[in-house]
Amino acid sequence: MGPLLCDHRVVESSSRSKTSVTMMLAAIVIVVYGMQAAKVILVPFIVAAFLALITVRPMLWLQAKRVPSIIAALLIVTMIMMILVLVGMILGTSIADFTAAIPGYQARLDTIVDGILRFIAKNFRDGQSIESLRDMVDPGWAMGLVANILNGLKDVLTNIFLIIFTMIFILLEASTVQTKVEAAFGRSENRLASPGQFLQNLGRYLGIKTIVSLATGLCAGLLTWWIGLDFPLLWAMLAFLLNYVPTIGSIIAAVPAVLLALVQLGPGEAGATAIGFVAINIVFGNFIEPRLMGYGVGISPLVVFLGLVFWGWVFGPVGMLLSVPLTMTMKLPLEANERTRWIAILLGSERDAEYALRHRAELEALEDDQATPTSS
Fold first, then answer.
1. Contacts of 143 (CB under 8 A, 6+ apart)
2. Quick one: 223 and 286 in the same domain?
3. pLDDT of residue 227
4. Domains held by the chain: number
5. Shared-domain flag, residues 280 and 305
6. Is residue 258 a contact partner of residue 270, using CB atoms and an 8 Å limit?
7. 306 and 289, same structural domain?
8. What average pLDDT does this structure show over 27-54?
9. Which residues contact 253 (CB under 8 A, 6 or more apart)?
10. pLDDT tens sequence across 301-349
11. Is the CB of residue 320 less than 8 Å from the CB of residue 308?
């Protein structure tokens, strides 16, 4: 009876484990589709939280200077609202003009691409039809992507009052969060240090990233204006927004500008535009930003790309722009739970994995020392 009872318990435990995994996966699918269905409501709140994380340090600084919380919040929000109104005016005018000009750009770009493909088909494919090559090349995808991203952002800015009011309440709560957490969980809870440290690091990351993105956008705008490209403000805005996405965003921002330079001005100017964007991203991405940050985003480059696709599918263009902060936020609860920490390690960078290995080695060495009997 003993072995049979033991086997029965093993089978029952395995069955419960499989059921738990199935229910967890089903819950994840339901939550994801629920977020996608509610993105009209969720996206303004996400943008408000994003802006609040950027401005919470100035808010706390004003409070330290004995400025009342409500006045400090109103000062910061007024400044943000003026910036958003200005951005909305620039986006509205530039997007309308750019959208109207896209068919003409598309026709010229198709002509250039067809000429290149005919040359390839004639010289390298024994005169075969170019249709098979043409089907694999869609030169207008970058132009359409620019319009979709900026139109999505413009749609979000139509909810500016909801964003502003949400941001005000988040900032007013910022100074009382620590007190409420200590009252709810006690001051001795070690696990509370992890979310607090995470939010502090995320706010610092977003603040520095915003400053670097502003400088990147300014340089991109000056570059495209100097070369003579149409809509330099649009390319500056696109470079600013997509700089929030490490590595991939810089490439996405450069491609449509280079294609437009090819269509509008010619191959020489297109090459100069490409070189200029590469130089800007090398200077800011490889030298200035790492010195200011002092640490990376803690996410694997592959996960950055997959997060871009996933959050873009869930929340649209705004999800693409905020994919890294959203992925970092998702990583936090995975790190806090011992059973899911391995997922956080896989999502993290090589530096995170090396830290986890060192920590595990230290724990194993400590356990070995405790297990070794001491000599009298």
1. 102, 105, 106, 109, 256, 259, 260
2. yes
3. 92
4. 3
5. no
6. yes
7. no
8. 83
9. 220, 235, 238, 239, 241, 242, 243, 277
10. 788 888 888 888 888 878 888 888 888 777 766 776 677 777 777 777 6
11. yes
Assigned token pair, 195: 């979310």
The mean pLDDT of 30-34, rounded to a whole number, is 84
pLDDT range class, residue 132, cuts 50, 70, 90: low
Query: Phi then psi for 56, rounded to 5 degrees?
Result: -70, -35
Concatenating the DSSP letter of every residue in 242-288 gives HTTSTTHHHHHHHHHHHHHHHHHT-HHHHHHHHHHHHHHHHIIIIII
Give residue 277's pLDDT.
92
Handedness of CA 15, 21, 25, 27 (dihedral sign): positive
Work out the mean pLDDT of the chain and round it to a whole number. 75
Domain membership of residue 345 as a residue range: 298-361
139 CB-near residues (< 8 Å, 6+ apart): 106, 109, 110, 112, 113, 259
Q: Are residues 305 and 339 in the same domain?
A: yes
State how far the alpha carbon of 184 is from the alpha carbons of 180, 192, 244, in Å: 6, 11, 35
Domain match, 244 and 324 both: no
Give the burial class of 267: count Cβ atoms within 10 A of its Cβ; 0-12 exposed, 13-18 middle, 19 or more buried: exposed
